[in-house]
Amino acid sequence: xxxxxxxxxxxxxxxxxxxxxxxxxxxxxxxxxxxxxxxxxxxxxxxxxxxxxxxxxxxxxxxxxxxxxxxxxxxxxxxxxxxxxxxxxxxxxxxxxxxxxxxxxxxxxxxxxxxxxxxxxxxxxxxx
Length: 128
Hints:
This protein is mainly alpha-helical. It has four helices and two strands. It has a two-stranded antiparallel sheet. The chain is elongated.
């Protein structure tokens, strides 16, 4: 050792923590997302994992066929009363009407649907 040279020592505390999560446990954790308003972050904290784990598990289980793909249309609760239509309904041969909401969601209605029916649909979706 030369004069003025400093020795460095690194102390390793603990052991690297790698856990094994069986598919059944992953499924159970994934099913908690959305229940009672629980977000991915809430569920990840509850189980001491990262949000990325949740997303990665979802992708892995979809690849294995254990996590269902979303089917068809889903209605979501909206907190936006009396929003205007972004486009008027067109004739029966035209394009579908699109209703844009402040939160970025879009509701598409079939061509030829009456404005009164569209308004009723908006109200039904808002109260769902």
